[in-house]
Amino acid sequence: MKLRKQYKQDDTLSLQGIVQVGEKTKELLMTIKPKQIAVIKHRDIDEIAARDIIRCKVKAVINADVTMTGSYPTKGPLLLLRAGIPILEITYPSFKKFYNHQVVKIHSFKIHVENHQIPYSIFTEDKYKNLLKTSYENLPSNLNHFIENTLQYAQKEKDFVIQSFEAPTLNVRIENRPVVIVVRGKEYRNDLLAIKDYIEDIEPVLIGVDGGADALLEHGYQPHVIIGDMDSVSDDALLSNAEIIVHAYPDGKAPGLERINALGLKAKTLSATGTSEDISMLLAYEKKAELIITLGAHSHMIDFLEKGRKGMSSTLLVRMKIGDKLIDAKGVSQLYQRKVKFKNIWPLPIAAMFPVVILTYVHPGVRDFLYIYWNYVKISIF
């Protein structure tokens, strides 16, 4: 088995590759190809981004921001390192020296980009462990600020959640039907796989929140509705004939509409505070869904800090309003992985032999063969 390289601070890398550049990691990952080098500007690389980078099979990551600040615990950098993907940290001004499809060489503590030599520092597991310890020390203070921010904004946003809003008309019927909402959160792909039997048996309404629509397509499901600001969903998903709802700001501005128009598609807008996943849950609720099942939804402080949000006021209020109609299936794939036991499979060979026995009994040719063979055995023995 090939051992994973354990990088140290004084290690020098020697590799070459084509770069793909993007200030927003989730947009970059929609175009990057295997074995390319990702050049990003991502402070505190979160777990979702890291897993997607690994899925894209990139050769290395060049980060023009602080890979991990120690403000809160995140697994993202560790996942990359354990997948054998080195992380090189550079200064932000150097970020502007890169462009898509450029060939770069990394050698002798420098990134050779055309006529420039950009110094870098390598992010190591030792550095991760030290920052993780710091993040846990900072956790009580961060939790305090997070709660205060949540309560402050909850006071401002409560009217929108409390009152019914005018939901756009949909072609798909939601009333008295279960709804599965897939959000681009931790383990959302595995969670979707875990409830495969439920989806196939019950046939619920499927709503993809931005990149959640791609997860539905990857598993062979056609999303009925796609809702979000359209920054992390693929063109293939948008062109899948799903109904599209663009999440607009409270003032009515909807930057995501530009992309929809560029694709020649039609969409409806929904102006609201909060996150797109909050709006999708409220939409299902206002349409009188029988049950609302969420996969990958953000539900705690670390989730929201990784999204760059300092509170979760709208999410808290929405969950309070929906009440027992909501089933949060996040992490269901990690709940239980059943092992095959001998006592459960021993009947299988017996069942497999049953048709052979029946065939032997009813088929005259088989009976004659066994009769002749048995006589031969008796003659040989006696």
From TrEMBL:
Residue stretches spanning the membrane: 345-363
Coiled coil: none
Domain SteA-like C-terminal: 330-373
High-level lineage: Bacteria, Bacillati, Bacillota, Bacilli, Bacillales
Domain of life: Bacteria
Segments forming domain Thiamin pyrophosphokinase catalytic: 204-239
Naturally occurring in which organism (per UniProt): Chengkuizengella axinellae
Protein name: Cytokinetic ring protein SteA
Entry keywords, A to Z: ATP-binding, Kinase, Membrane, Nucleotide-binding, Transferase, Transmembrane, Transmembrane helix
Xref: InterPro entries: Put_SteA-like (IPR047795), SteA-like_C (IPR022215), TPK_catalytic (IPR007371), TPK_catalytic_sf (IPR036759)
Pfam families xref list: SteA-like_C, TPK_catalytic
